[in-house]
Amino acid sequence: MVEQISYGPFACASFFFGMSLLERKTFTEAIEEVKEKFAPTYKVGICVWPFLQTINFSVVPEHNRVVFVSICSLIWTCFLAYMKTKEMEHAIQIEAETND
User: Fold this and answer.
1) Which of 12, 15, 38, 78 to pair with 32, CA 20 to 30 A apart?
2) What separation in angstroms does the CA of 50 have from each of 37, 43, 45, 72, 97?
């Protein structure tokens, strides 16, 4: 729980903000994207990560814990990428409808 309260919000906001800047969006656009996507993504993280960490420390043998968390982190990164592109898909759909 400590990780979700202290590190989770920072990591989530940093991901969306940093990726937006790497896409050459303006500072204001990056902030708007964080405002739009932070809450839904963080809500999922709060539900998923405590559950995964409970499994990690109660079921997974000690020598396999790093591997288990690494696999979970890979899946989480795929989810973050999905959340990042979610708006783009919606914007492309609206643009296509406008052009028709």
Assistant:
1) 78
2) 21, 12, 8, 12, 41
Residue 70 clears pLDDT 90, i.e. is over it = yes
Region 66-91: what's the mean pLDDT?
87
Residue by residue, DSSP assigns the chain as: -HHHHHTHHHHHHHHHHHHHHHTT--HHHHHHHHHHHHHHHHHHHHHHHHHHHHHHHHTS-GGGHHHHHHHHHHHHHHHHHHHHHHHHHHHHHHHHHHH-
87 close to 36: Cβ distance less than 8 angstroms: yes
Answer yes or no: are the C-beta atoms of 20 and 37 closer than 8 Å.
no
Q: What pTM, to 2 d.p., does this model score?
A: 0.77
Tens digits of residue pLDDT in 56-66: 999 999 999 99
User: Can you tell me the distance from the alpha carbon of 31 to that of 55, in angstroms, rounded to the nearest whole number?
Assistant: 35
> Measured between alpha carbons, how far is 71 from 79 in angstroms, rounded to an integer?
13
